[in-house]
Design a protein that fits this description.
single chain, about 130 residues, alpha+beta, 5-stranded mixed beta sheet, 5 strands, globular
Length: about 130
């Protein structure tokens, strides 16, 4: 499993990517197309046109890491529609793990809140 914290965010590139790109090429895609900082600690997922290969770009605090997977059978789920948009698709770490296992993404159902807002101790809820 890549990363282990719940706060780690995953951004999927919304179009087929040229996976011949290395660190600098993928970093440029994140910066130019997704308009995000690749050194933020978030994961960035890329998939090629045939959806048989995927790469994850991650800053681990000391340098960029690339994780790559090639499926021997089947294809990765399509994260983009017929007309790819420039907006990144945000995934959870669980969805990333399922994606990398080759599972089909049928529908997305939020199972827990994205972030928990702490409240002052002793504060009451309004019912």
């Amino acid at each position: 499993m890549i990363g282990s914290t719940r706060t780690l965010r995953v951004w999927a590139y919304p179009a087929p990517a040229d996976l011949r790109k290395g660190f600098d090429g993928l970093q440029a895609l994140v910066t130019a197309t997704l308009q995000r900082d690749p050194l933020s600690g978030d994961c960035y997922l890329f998939c090629n046109r045939t959806r048989r290969r995927a790469k994850v770009l991650l800053w681990d605090g000391t340098g960029l890491c690339i994780y790559q997977k090639r499926l021997e059978r089947g294809r990765f789920a399509a994260l983009w529609g017929a007309a790819a948009t420039a907006a990144a698709v945000e995934l959870t770490m669980s969805e990333l793990a399922l994606f990398l296992e080759g599972c089909a993404l049928v529908a997305r159902q939020p199972l827990s809140p994205r972030s928990v807002q702490p409240r002052a101790r002793g504060a009451r809820r309004n019912n």
